[in-house]
Design brief:
Length: about 270
Amino acid sequence: MRKAHHLKIKLGGALILFLVLVAILAPIFPLQNPDKGNLAQELNGLSSQHLLGQDDEGRDVLSRLVYGTRVSLLIGFATVAISMTLGTAIGLVSGFFGGRLDQIFIFVSDVFLAFPSILLIIAIAAFVPPSILNIIFVLSFVGWVSYARIARGQALMIKNMEYIQASRVLGFSKRRILTQHIFPNALGPLIVNGTLSLAGVIIAESTLSFLGIGVPSGVPSWGNMLEAGVAYLLVAPHLSIFPGLVIMITVLAFNFFGDGVRDYYDVKA
């Protein structure tokens, strides 16, 4: 079983590393301008000059896919970082101190969880101007709840352990106990949730862009490319096939990595 865990982590990690390198090195690749089109060559198929063809405005599909990687990974990592930071802080404080604060947190989180997350994301995104920052805000606003629930559960479990009781007897401050004893021991499940959530964030961003309420249409984005290709599925299927494949591979990579990390932290595995 341990070998299977390492295989998932290595395979998923290798794919993620490749995507990160593509995103970072995109400007130095010998690619055509992703925003420069040629209407005389619109919907052209695969060729030596355009390896993955051209879109409805004559722009190079490969270039737009590569630069779309930067958009998707930026939104994914930024959203997870913000959601995890905010949710972990709220959940640990709620679980550690309990009382009225914990009751308020339970009520607020139940309200968020009462709605399907994707519908809540779409509803909020529809009322803000399309932009990368707004998408990160919307996804983080909805995504913090899962981290907070996990952090709260870990705090409730850990705060009653013997070494925490010993820390209280020794006169350690609540802040020290929370930050130096409870937080490090609660970090494993939060990391697992973060790695698995990255795939969901990328799908959510692509969904919003596909619906026209995500990344602005002029910005290279996998969701925007899918939306633009729908009208040409019969005459130029490459416009939708390649963005769809890239999204599938990216989500698969994060799921592999997340599953491997989850199995690694599972002492029963």
